[in-house]
Amino acid sequence: MLNLNLSGSIALVTGATGDLGRVMVRTLAECGADIVIHYLSNESKALELKREVEALGRRAIAVQGNVTKQDDIERIKTEAAEQLGTVNIVVANAVIQYQWTSILEQSASDYESQFESCVMQSVYLAKAFVPAMIEQGKGGRFIGINTECAMQNFPNQSAYTAGKRGMDGIYRVLAKEVGAHQITVNQVAPGWTISDRDREAQSERNEQYESSVPLKRRGSDQEIANTVAFLASDLSSFITGAYIPVNGGNVIPAI
Predict the structure, then answer these.
(1) pLDDT above 80 (res 46)
(2) Distance between CA atoms of residues 156 and 101, nearest Å
(3) What is d(CA 126, CA 167) in angstroms, rounded to the nearest whole number?
(4) So which residues are the catalytic ones?
């Protein structure tokens, strides 16, 4: 009997107060993990999530920090270790938001922000959390939230696509570098996903987008969180270096 059980695990979710992050937090906690809830500015939502996790019988802390700053990530690691223990599941979900436009119009600072929040966040998280996973000797999970845009390369996506494709390179190399320690490194690539924001605005449907998706619908935030929970669990113990689209087949990697 298959059992997605994360009891005894401690998971960090960056960008935990965002549309996808908050569902990841709830889902990982429902599976039994204690949670480090990272936030940049939305302290009220972080504390609300903390209460939700604790109501499920799990431990949780809310930690503020800028994931593009190595010192902040090191501080998050220290607070997590002191209050909960060794983090063995890292979910790099945070990303800087910006206004998309053409390459000719996009500012250089937007490319820099995407590099910082996609590539360097992942590097800093690896430097901070992987050594303790290795020392603990029980393996671990390193999961990044990528995007279908990294395969689409549509107009106006350049800064986001560049950041996420750079992130992809980091994860593929890291998977090979830490695999001997039974630490898996994988990416989840959502499509245009339905979240609470859509439900509140009643904007879940978009026929133009749905027409290009083989499953003829948009995915949900819960479906993204389910994939993250699977990759965080022992059920995925022999999967590493993967880029997994969760988008109803809207992009399909080739061999």
Answers:
(1) yes
(2) 5
(3) 12
(4) 160
Task: Specify the pLDDT at position 31.
Answer: 98
Per-residue pLDDT tens digits for 186-209: 999 999 999 999 999 999 999 999
What are residue 243's DSSP bridge partners?
187
* Residue 3 confidence (pLDDT): 84
Convert the pLDDT of each residue in 65-91 to its tens digit.
999 999 999 999 999 999 999 999 999
* C-alpha span between 48 and 143 (Å, rounded): 24
Domains of the chain: 10-245 (3.40.50.720)
Burial of 42 (C-beta count, 10 Å sphere; 0-12/13-18/19+): middle
CA distance 92 to 21: 9
> At 214, which amino acid appears?
P
The full 3-state SS of the chain, as one line of letters, equals CCCCCCCCCEEEECCCCCCCHHHHHHHHHHCCCEEEEEECCCHHHHHHHHHHHHHCCCCEEEEECCCCCHHHHHHHHHHHHHHCCCCCEEEECCCCCCCCCCCCCCCHHHHHHHHHHHHHHHHHHHHHHHHHHHHHCCCEEEEEECCCHHHHCCCCCHHHHHHHHHHHHHHHHHHHHHHHHCEEEEEEEECCCECHHHHHHCCCCCHHHHHCCCCCCCCEHHHHHHHHHHHHCHHHCCCCCCEEEECCCCCCCCC
The phi, psi pair for 61, rounded to 5°, reads: -135, 150
Q: Average pLDDT over the chain, rounded to whole?
A: 97
Place of tokens 């990697």: 253
Angstrom distance (rounded) from CA 21 to CA 127: 22
Strand partners, 184: 141
Look up residue 213 and give its two tokens: 């998706």
